[in-house]
Design brief:
Layout lengths: L8 E10 L2 H11 L3 E14 L9 E8 L5 E12 L2 E10 L2 H9 L10 H9 L5 E16 L2 E10 L2 E9 L3 H14 L5 E2 L4 H7 L4
Antiparallel strand pairs: 1-5, 1-8, 1-9, 2-3, 2-6, 3-4, 4-5, 6-7, 7-8
Length: 207
């Protein structure tokens, strides 16, 4: 039985942390001409009832958004974040929002839900039941900047707010160099993200 996400893509992203609302405001003002849209997202996380996912460094996420896709289910595994570059095995599919909402309210409904990703979690990880871990909200501004798709996030946890720039790229070092140059030129303070949003959520405090 294989426990890695075999059909998954390796998602590679640059992740730069912005220290505060002021830096976030600077970035969104500078990037305003390149704005494609704003997504209001709600992220909810689930494990197997016997920690079958977390025991193998995996997690299941349901994401609801006010823009298409309205609901997506994602299996993420073996996340590594080094020098502001994140690599994570990811398998994602769109989910009927009604099924998503019913599953969020009663996670055991995921045992019978029609979904390739959920079926995979049940089969590959031997999950016999699901438990909700809670989650957080995120406001994501998406930009098309110099051929890069930038996502500027304002993530609201119960214990505070984090700000971050993410950029998925086949050339993360090149993308990171471009972004760092842009931020330095404009006097925007930033640092390399050291932990994922999910890890921050689990820690229960801002990094």
């Amino acid at each position: 039985m294989s426990h890695h996400i075999s059909k998954a893509l390796m998602e590679v992203e640059v992740k730069l942390r912005l220290p505060d609302a002021a830096a976030h405001g600077q970035v969104t003002a500078l990037l305003a001409p390149f704005l494609l849209g704003t997504h209001r997202q709600e992220n909810l996380f689930f494990d197997g009832s016997k920690s079958e996912l977390s025991a193998r460094r995996a997690v299941l996420r349901l994401r609801f958004s006010d823009r298409s896709p309205l609901c997506a289910v994602t299996l993420k595994a073996k996340a590594v974040l080094v020098d502001g570059v994140s690599r994570v095995e990811e398998d994602e599919e769109e989910l009927d929002p009604g099924v998503g909402r019913a599953s969020a309210a009663e996670p055991e409904k995921m045992m019978a839900a029609e979904s390739r990703v959920l079926r995979r979690v049940r089969e590959e990880f031997g999950v016999l039941g699901f438990v909700g871990m809670g989650g957080f909200g995120n406001v994501r501004d998406v930009y098309d900047w110099k051929g890069l798709k930038l996502e500027v996030d304002e993530t609201k946890y119960e214990f505070g707010t984090c700000y971050e720039i993410e950029c998925e790229s086949a050339d993360p070092d090149g993308a990171k160099e471009n972004l760092e140059e842009f931020l330095k030129e404009n006097g925007v303070r930033y640092s390399y993200s050291k932990v994922s949003k999910f890890a921050t959520f689990r820690a229960g405090k801002l990094p």
